[in-house]
Amino acid sequence: MIEVNHFEEVIQIKMSREVGGRLLYWVAAYLVDGLLIDTGCVHTAEELVKFLEGQDLKLSVNTHHHEDHVGANHLLKERFGIQIFSHREAIPLINRIPRLNQYQEIVWGHPEPTEVACLPETIETAHFLFNAIETPGHCKGHVALIEPERGWCFSGDLFVSERPKVLRPEEDISEYIKSMRKLEGLKTDRLILFTSIGKIVQDGRKALGSCREYLEDLSRRAKDLERKGLSPAAIRDEVFGGESHFVKLTGGHYSSENLIRAALRAQI
Prior knowledge:
CATH architecture of one domain: 4-Layer Sandwich
Oligomer: single chain
Order of helices and strands: EEEEEEHEHEHHEEEEEHEEHHHH
Low-confidence stretches: none
CATH topology of one domain: Metallo-beta-lactamase, Chain A
Distance between the termini: 41 Å
Number of helices: 9
Strand order of the largest sheet: 1-2-5-6-7-8-9
CATH superfamily of one domain: Ribonuclease Z/Hydroxyacylglutathione hydrolase-like
Structural class: alpha/beta
Helix content: 25-40%
Largest sheet: 7 strands, mixed
Number of strands: 15
Shape: globular
CATH class of one domain: Alpha Beta
């Protein structure tokens, strides 16, 4: 299923696999001035392509290599012959079959390997100029696209909420904090976050600052508790009151304990 919304000159395309009348999880792509930012998952690729047949599509950028951001790449290149760009570190990961957990296969599916080009520092469309900014933390090769004149920030998975409670085991809080600081410091009049989960956050600087401060405080608190002899699981229970329900849903891939372990590793 897809849902289309508009914000200024940006078209938001929210996508979710539907099973038995139930929507599993929204992901969002954004179309602005012929540029498509992210391509959703395999399960919604045909619907996305059908929608884009009525649009002036020129090119696409993947903010990172994960399956819910590159799922329609192959089909878009096949149907429209467009060029797709990604960060140099994401290129080999997009052009291979990923290893997925069971929940990822169900919710998003395996994207076909796709050859993509190396993302330049700027992307120019007919009316806008986008700066590509490296924003690791969620994964290596993650980028945000910034339109400085409009204050638009297409932030991928850098920002989900101001107080996240779960994390994947490979995510890096130190890199998250550096990336958020980088975006907070942009010389733009405003900073609107267009997130991959479909949130459009109009006061992006405030949201990024709140999340960054939360992660910094969490790291300090977790390290204080570790010095008192608590294990990561015990720190999780002290801070969050137990484990998140995402553990069962994702087979342990997302968990509060992962977040605590990342907070303990963080160099703040």
